[in-house]
Amino acid sequence: MGAGAYKKGFDIPYPLGVMANVIWMRQSITIDNMQLGLKSKNQDIPLTGVDFIEFGQNTNTSVSYNFRPDIWVLPFLNVYGLFGAGNTSTEVNLVAPIQLKSVVEQSLRTTGFGVMGAGGIGPIWISVDANFTWNKPELLDEATKVNVLGVRMGHSFVFKKQPDRNINVWVGGMRVHMASETKGQIKISDAISQNVWDSKDKLVSDYYEWYNGLNPNNPVDRKKIEVADNTLTPIVEKIDEANGDAIIRYGMDKQTKQLWNMALGAQFQLNKAWQLRSEVGFIGDRKSVLVSLNYRFLGPKTKEFR
Question: Each residue of 21-38: pLDDT tens digit?
Answer without folding.
Answer: 999 999 999 999 999 999
